[in-house]
Amino acid sequence: MEFLLEKFSKEWIEKYKKAHYKIIGKYLHSAVSLCRWTKSVLRGGKNCYKKWYGIASHRCIQMTPTLDFCNFSCVFCWRSFSKDRFEHKNGWDDPKTIVNEAIKAQKELISGFGGNPKTSKKIFEEANKPMHFAISLDGEPTLYPYLSELIKEIKDRGFTVFLVTNGTIPSKLKELLEKDAIPTNLYISVYATNNEDYIKITNSLIPNPFEKVVESLKFMKEFEKRNCRTVFRITCVKFINMYNAEGFSKLINLSKPMFVELKGYAWLGESRKRLGKNNVPSMQDLLDFAKEISSYTGYKIKATDNNSRVVLLIRDENILNFIENDSCNKN
């Protein structure tokens, strides 16, 4: 195969293989990887906090159509950054190819668990019949030009789909609405409350990222009208962005998401070269920040997951039917 970009060198591919990614498609811009909670459930352990939304980790395909393509290089990101991460000179695989190969890759990745004594036959059989796509593995998915078609392809096959975006391409969210390509959950990750901090935290490769995120947040109400769960997510990094609860609350009050997730930064991978252990918030730090946000927004703290260090706030009690009585924080 001819590699048209330096990033698609054999060394680049080997880096991701060592990280247990399966790179799929002719043009090498998509990938699948098992998350820690998929492995946990397959070994008889705990589910991830997405159980709150009815997701069984062992039946979830964690993938991306934009491997190493992103318009941010966030200081807290555990990934390494290639110099070409905002360029794509190769072609793009079509959605059917991506979905077919993602399912195949997932089955190959879990195949070794079939002989694991900790893996029950029932769980292994279920895992071989995935039911969910999490478009969240790497990169910024709205950079994939056929995202609307990809979401429709996934849903047409009976899967649920979570889309996690940094919200910097509001035109793509508008396109999803226009093409009726509505994800089951739409996450917009918000990292700061003004443009200056956004540029500092994300090393943005585009101008005025905060303005674009605000524009995207305004679409949340429209997605909710189309039976999409809307989630405002903050990756909380101590001493970096956990200082302006009022500013985040103004954005929450503007967008009125169904849920707010506060996810604690983890000192992993390449981020250890940029940040220190002191930037990792404790569960109490997250709860304190959540209480501040609650005081400004009226959103209520409803669930926590100590293992993943996530706090969930909800807008009102009428949207609670998705939370199981034995939610993650009670396991």
Mean pLDDT reading:
89
What is the terminal separation in angstroms? 48 Å
Spatial shape:
globular
Beta-strand portion reads 15-25%
Q: What integer value in Å does the Rg equal?
A: 19 Å
- CATH-defined fold name: TIM Barrel
**Biggest pleated sheet:** 10 strands, mixed
Helix content: 25-40%
What is the CATH architecture annotation? Alpha-Beta Barrel
Count structural domains: 1
CATH class: Alpha Beta
> Ranges with pLDDT <50 over ≥5 residues?
1-5, 324-331
Number of strands: 10
> Strand order of the main beta sheet, please?
1-2-3-4-5-6-7-8-10-9
Offer a quick outline of the entry.
This protein has 331 residues and is α/β, with parallel strands linked by helices. It is 32% helix and 16% strand.
Structure commentary:
This protein is of the alpha/beta class and 331 residues long. A hairpin with a 5-residue loop joins strand 1 (21-24) and strand 2 (30-33). Mean pLDDT is 89; it is low at 1-5 and 324-331. 32% of the residues lie in helices and 16% in strands. The protein has a single domain, classed as Aldolase class I (TIM Barrel, Alpha-Beta Barrel). The longest helix is centred in the N-terminal third of the chain and has 16 residues, at 95-110. A 10-stranded mixed sheet has the order 1-2-3-4-5-6-7-8-10-9. It is built from 11 helices and 10 strands.
